């Protein structure tokens, strides 16, 4: 997939990479929607690939894409055969316009309505440079791939690491032990990872850890990391860069630029500052926090919640074959992210929640992220996610799903009282469920699954007049 | 001038900065050619500025530009008054097209034919980013200004240092002592400097030196640095980045990318590799070494000399009001640099000489740079420049101008024999003159002055049949 990030655009074609967790139904739907002509499948995913092609043949009269396998076994590797037999000289097919598409990235769509984000050459070039700069990737880095390359083109870093003459350490699967081993063995200088990857590192058993050969810069994004997790990994020698973006912004779009004077602040304060999403990077014209109804910017008060919006070169060309969704997402000339944020007096933005994750209880907005941060700081907690549970009286109440650390214990009452000591009472969860959290392939917690579970619980308040 | 790099483009105007060494005649010619509307002059240059305006008034019926002074004395500072009285809110006048001009940089022209290089917003943006990346300027640098900001817009670093949130240390004049003092006092992380600045550092008396607070990255360019000088400054803790470019390429356009495996090579070999000009940076489409007659690329043999040429986004829009010169310089779709170079087997280019500096003796091309490098390695030599002296028999012979170190001594015969031991005999100078070398304001040796002197000496060979 790394090589294809270069070969496919240089052949004048568009690269479309699929999530390796998709099932045959989704793969078939995306093959059809994308109109893929060539379908490269790693051998361990061939069953899904073949089943998807069969579905496609059954449902469509169009020509099927050519299937080529990529295999660890050189004997049956179509891809390596292709490379071996290619002419030594090849004239690159340059795009006619820098706004021509370079890649198509399917994001949170469904089989009946795939959502394919179109990247163009100009945007990819600029976002690659901006990501490399935001993340202090100097010449000749060694980059550990924990972020999948199928996700926002690996935050543009297949291009970015090559641009800086770097070495790529690729992993098919990883654990904390594999991460520590790879860093020590290869002298890793940079890696990426969702906050759940940071959490995995922070909670690794001592036996799985190895000393770092030098500072390891970690770009984290996808969800705001809890301050406690930030602190824990920095104590191990990782330097965390907090970034924020969407598939629709080619991945990274803001960065929490670190001020040297903050080094002297207490650890808790440093973690609080670093958990903010910061400023737009140098390749996008701007990030703003706006009232989506009036399109007016919120004041720089750290309080007023609005919607984070972007405009500029590194906003997608649009959703493939979906002009309505494209126009809706770009209403008023700004990309609407669906993320709720505030603007601090120093100009840094901070996410409060996904619009759909906010909990509205008794008319008050509760940021699930703020409640999660507090639960995360409980010593027994490994992971936490907070969603809305429907309520006859309050409308919604916060419901926490919590995974405890191995060997640790805590009760529902303890977690609730821990939160009530640290938050306004209305923000503390009223329900705590102890269980493993469902994850996406990029390590994000699947809140829609938890929301379904909370909905199935029904109202906590039994009469409209009871007081909690 | 730093602030004006932002204020002028943001006001929708074009920034045109003059060399502070220009006399009233040249300033008057450039004011006229550029059509400047506002003329900002530092108070210590007011005599030249007023004389230039008087000349302009005498020679032209056009309206004179408005004169505004910039003064160290707040009482009489038009510029600070303007800033103080400006409205608090100002709407940036964005360029209508990214190809609109941002600055006009006069380079080696004459009063009768000024040569004004037009930069556009797109090129300046891209070259700023490429320079920051080529030079490993990570977040929050402290930059020492030894390269004048009027030269190629200070290699784009007024914009680049701001982009990375840096601190600027500005000097009106400098010596080696001032450089060492500034580095120690301000914790300088990056600086620029022509090879003559490196030489000044390498030869600073012990009393003028101070230990560096950390590695100081120095971007050098303008002329290829002699290997001995590279070695000497690296021993002091400077990390040298060898770059190459022209005013016509927004300054930096290639960089000698350092391969980690070269760290293990002997010092002489490292210096030899680092003296090469390398590859094009990420913002220009390409550098090539071509035969200017056929426009064919030279082979990657490190031997065949051709002309270095560029094309891509960071090649100038053109020469202002001079379409003929623009078309001539861009013949065949590539910017012709006038610099002679070879391409090494590893793809790195290396300058051999300016086309006009090459010495042709008995039909052989002699690179003045190669001869200078050898003379520089003589322990008594502080500076050296080699030019052609006309010769009745050989056509030309190499003539060296040498400045010795304080207290050191060497004779003409010693220098010649030192060179003959290290170079083919025909390359060794036949004449050595001991004197101070004339310099431009950016520290380049003014070879045209020396060439005049050598021409005035007449032929060394007295009869057409004599053998030397």
UniProtKB/TrEMBL annotation, chains A, B:
Domain AMP-binding enzyme C-terminal: residue ranges: 370-444
Coiled coil regions in record: none
GO biological process: fatty acid metabolic process; phenylpropanoid metabolic process
Cofactor: Mg(2+)
AMP-dependent synthetase/ligase domain ranges (all copies): 1-320
GO MF annotations in UniProt: 4-coumarate-CoA ligase activity; trans-cinnamate-CoA ligase activity
Sorted UniProt keywords: Fatty acid metabolism, Ligase, Lipid metabolism, Magnesium
EC class of the enzyme, as a word: ligase
Family matches, as InterPro entries: AMP-bd_C, AMP-bd_C_sf, AMP-binding_CS, AMP-dep_synth/lig_dom, ANL_N_sf
Keyword Ligase: yes
EC number(s) from the headed UniProt entry: 6.2.1.12
Keyword Iron: no
Domain of life of the source: Eukaryota
Catalyses which reaction(s): (E)-4-coumarate + ATP + CoA = (E)-4-coumaroyl-CoA + AMP + diphosphate; (E)-4-coumarate + ATP + H(+) = (E)-4-coumaroyl-AMP + diphosphate; (E)-4-coumaroyl-AMP + CoA = (E)-4-coumaroyl-CoA + AMP + H(+)
Pfam (any one): AMP-binding
Entries under PANTHER family matching the protein: ACYL-ACTIVATING ENZYME (PTHR43859), BUTANOATE--COA LIGASE AAE1-RELATED (PTHR43859:SF4)
Sequence similarity: Belongs to the ATP-dependent AMP-binding enzyme family.
Protein name, UniProt field: 4-coumarate--CoA ligase
Organism the protein comes from: Panicum virgatum
């Amino acid at each position: 997939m790394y090589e294809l990030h270069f070969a496919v655009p240089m052949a004048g074609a568009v690269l479309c990479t699929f999530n390796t967790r998709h099932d045959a139904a989704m793969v078939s739907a995306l093959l059809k929607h994308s109109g893929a002509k060539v379908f490269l499948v790693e051998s361990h995913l061939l069953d899904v690939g073949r089943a998807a092609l069969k579905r496609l043949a059954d449902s469509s009269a169009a020509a099927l894409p050519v299937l080529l396998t990529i295999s660890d076994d050189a004997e049956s590797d179509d891809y390596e055969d292709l490379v071996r037999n290619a002419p030594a000289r090849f004239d690159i097919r340059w795009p006619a316009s820098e706004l021509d598409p370079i890649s198509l990235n399917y994001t949170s769509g469904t089989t009946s309505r795939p959502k394919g984000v179109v990247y163009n050459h100009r945007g990819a070039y600029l976002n690659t440079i901006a990501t490399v700069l935001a993340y202090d990737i100097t010449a000749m880095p060694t980059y550990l791939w924990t972020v999948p390359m199928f996700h926002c083109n690996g935050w543009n870093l297949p291009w970015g690491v090559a641009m800086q003459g770097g070495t790529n350490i690729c992993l098919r699967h990883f654990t904390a032990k594999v991460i520590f081993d790879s860093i020590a063995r290869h002298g890793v200088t940079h890696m990426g990872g969702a906050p759940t990857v940071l959490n995995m590192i922070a909670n690794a058993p001592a036996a799985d850890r190895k000393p770092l050969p030098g500072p390891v810069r970690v770009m984290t994004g996808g969800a705001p990391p809890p301050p406690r997790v930030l602190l824990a990994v920095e104590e191990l020698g990782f330097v965390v860069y907090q970034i924020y973006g969407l598939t629709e912004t080619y991945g990274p779009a803001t960065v929490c630029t670190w001020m040297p004077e903050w080094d002297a602040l207490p650890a808790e304060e440093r973690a609080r500052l670093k958990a903010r999403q910061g400023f737009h990077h140098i390749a996008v014209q701007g990030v703003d926090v706006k009232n989506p109804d009036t399109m007016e910017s919120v004041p720089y008060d750290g309080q007023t919640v609005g919607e984070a919006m972007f405009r500029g070169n590194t906003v997608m060309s649009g959703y493939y074959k979906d002009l309505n969704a494209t126009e809706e997402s770009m209403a008023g000339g700004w990309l609407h992210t669906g993320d709720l944020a505030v603007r601090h007096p120093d100009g840094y933005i901070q996410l409060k929640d996904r619009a759909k994750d906010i909990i509205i209880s008794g008319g008050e907005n509760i940021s699930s992220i703020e409640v999660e941060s507090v639960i995360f700081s409980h010593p027994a907690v490994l992971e936490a996610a907070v969603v809305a549970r429907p309520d006859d009286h309050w409308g919604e109440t916060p419901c926490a799903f919590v995974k405890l650390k191995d060997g640790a214990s805590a009760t529902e009452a303890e977690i609730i009282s821990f939160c009530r000591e640290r938050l306004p009472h209305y923000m503390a969860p009223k329900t705590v469920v102890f269980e493993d959290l469902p994850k996406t392939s990029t390590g994000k917690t699947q809140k829609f699954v938890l929301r379904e579970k909370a909905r199935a619980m029904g109202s906590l308040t039994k009469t409209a007049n009871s007081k909690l």
